[in-house]
Amino acid sequence: MGKQPNIYMDYASTAPTVPQVVEAMAPYWEHTFGNSDSQHRFGRDAANALEKARSTIADILSCHPVELVFTGSGTESDNLALRGTALAARQNGTGNHIVTTTIEHRAVEATVEQLGDFFQFDITRVPVNEFGQVSPEDIARAIRPDTILVSVMAANNEVGTVQPIFRIGQVCRQHGVLFHTDAVQAAGKLPLEVADCNIDLLAISAHKIYGPKGVGLLYIRRRTPFVPPITGGHQERGRYPGTVNVAGAVGLATAYEIAETIRVDECRRLRALRDQLIQNVLSTIPDSRLTGHPSQRLCNIASFAFRGIEGEDLVVRLDQTGVSASTGAACSSGEPEASAVLDAMGIPQEWGTGSLRLSLGRFTTEDDIARVVGLLPDIVAQLRSHS
Amino acid sequence: MGKQPNIYMDYASTAPTVPQVVEAMAPYWEHTFGNSDSQHRFGRDAANALEKARSTIADILSCHPVELVFTGSGTESDNLALRGTALAARQNGTGNHIVTTTIEHRAVEATVEQLGDFFQFDITRVPVNEFGQVSPEDIARAIRPDTILVSVMAANNEVGTVQPIFRIGQVCRQHGVLFHTDAVQAAGKLPLEVADCNIDLLAISAHKIYGPKGVGLLYIRRRTPFVPPITGGHQERGRYPGTVNVAGAVGLATAYEIAETIRVDECRRLRALRDQLIQNVLSTIPDSRLTGHPSQRLCNIASFAFRGIEGEDLVVRLDQTGVSASTGAACSSGEPEASAVLDAMGIPQEWGTGSLRLSLGRFTTEDDIARVVGLLPDIVAQLRSHS
């Protein structure tokens, strides 16, 4: 095994920054290094690059550039969305209730927890079905006169299930409630036209779409009441102050532009690889099951549960054979917790601990799939024989 | 003038990312691109780089690596410091009062404003003297039994005045109050040994020390009560969640290491250039004055007030002649406001509007100084004759 190249199957956790993006960022380190806020030529050059990046993304999302805020991460974008609208609602006395789901990423879940426990907002977590999907009708039923915001992720990071955000957006609009979606996993895989989907706030992360780490984006629809949860200068119209990361903004825009250009073809390719992987795993490994929705799932995520083993052991054994994968929510995978998402989907404990996410990406090949399919049955069998 | 190279004299606003830093970050785009949180070889390689960067900075600050948190900017570090300790105090019922000064950067001032107006904390802003310096005795007098935090910048961004943070740290320790300092301008110019100075929280920005934009650092002394104002996964021990910007952390560490290595010599060089600039300006331009402290000032900041002109006009004229400078607080220089810092120092309005900051840096030469000294008297005279 040692001679074979490593197989990276954790693209949902992070992706490499591709050469075109590295190249696009290059002028903004030493040459066009000005503070985009400065009133001189160095500042203007930086500001021009920043606004060009903003426009590129506005074209992709079909929104106005002023509606876009560059942040430090997808997590931060989610935080700004939830906290900014919650603080504004408190200031304006417009309500105290937030609706979300039981399978949100920690960036949303931990934030609504604090908004609930610390800031006394009322939180309703709408459950999901066995496929990890929330129903727009359930969202509608959870909305109350004092509801200020609905937050539902566009696609789940762990099982890849795509949520009916178009219909949830309609429900929110009908009820006059703001709609936030964490689109960190969906960006580059699904079309995200914010106006069509009635989305008021949308969070994206650069490094999931082959851009740099440390750069996020938040779409905030114009006239959305917003009190900045991070304060300082007037950068990003005061919504995310601090000297703007111009290179990062250019990197995000470049990465997103590439991802959108190749999206349809690349998703078709990945979907075929993903389905090959799923079919092989399910047919060769006893007591295995697919987690998440059978068809309404991201093109790049194959997620499984294997009865009676520990996902963490599985990831360690795969790593020893040169395959990088993850179990549970990748962003908190340092914690030896059972998957909260699978639990929320009603998957029994003896299956839920044996979760595995194999997420494919731009550099995944058929050979990679074949090798993983060849390795996995033995590894699962060995783990079962040891336990 | 058009043929001459541009002269950048706005290093206090931002500095170029130097080639050694760009080079140090390079492996972390495409090659060692893993999520430092992942449990496989790509993750471990990223985590190793991250922890090496953290250790490098811990050595500089004489602290423990776990006390360091990588953030998205200096502004964000200040926000985390103030909000994190304020929320913890609220949770623990330990007090409701924050002491700061009248000349803080917007990252601190706007945050204490919101903590005061929105979250009902009590804020005391201790005034400064004509040199922009706060007295430790005044800080001591402002501390009350319910004071939780004192926030005083290490050096002012606009006039370069260095604050007596060693003695303020002693005062805070004597009173059992946390001490935060915004060291964004001081880093790389002053030694910052957090333990010696009794500093509990210290904020730094990478791009001011020739590192990348979009990366900040917050030192949080162990056992400092802290409720994270941004929530999500457990990265950075939950104090700043979100996938860590590994390249950025490596960039910050590399930049800071270089800055510390050359600090003493480079500051000596800059101080000589700065004093040459100050002496020439004051002797050749009538109705000009130095702002800030005559001797206790950052080695790289020369700041002036010229009676009866507008600083913004001055910056525009300088820009037309190829000199990049700033007026007022550089980070909010898009706003046509009179300098709040000069106002707080008691400088009369007719002087305060005519503020100019010339901040020198690693690529500033004697020729640059000579050219600016040659240009400035005529420009000031022209502006005066027009008004």
Describe this structure in words.
The structure is a homodimer of 387-residue chains. The first copy, chain A, is α/β, with parallel strands linked by helices. Chain A has two domains: 7-15 and 263-386, Aspartate Aminotransferase, domain 1 (Alpha-Beta Complex); 19-258, Type I PLP-dependent aspartate aminotransferase-like (Major domain) (Aspartate Aminotransferase, domain 2, 3-Layer(aba) Sandwich), CATH 3.40.640.10. Chain A has twelve helices and twelve strands. Chain A has helices spanning 19-25, 27-30, 41-61, 74-92, 106-117, 136-142, 165-175, 246-284, 311-320, 340-344, 349-352, 366-386; strands at 7-8, 68-71, 97-101, 122-126, 147-151, 178-182, 201-205, 216-220, 288-290, 301-306, 323-324, 355-359. In chain A, strands 2-8-7-6-5-3-4 form a seven-stranded mixed sheet, with helices on both faces. In chain A, strand 3 (97-101), helix 5 (106-117) and strand 4 (122-126) form a beta-alpha-beta unit. In chain A, helix 4 (74-92) runs parallel beside helix 5 and helix 9 crosses helix 12 (366-386). The longest helix of chain A is centred in the last third of the chain and has 39 residues, at 246-284. The first copy, chain A, is globular and about 65 Å long. At the A-B interface, helix 1, helix 3, helix 4, helix 5 and helix 8 of A face helix 1, helix 3, helix 4, helix 5 and helix 8 of B.
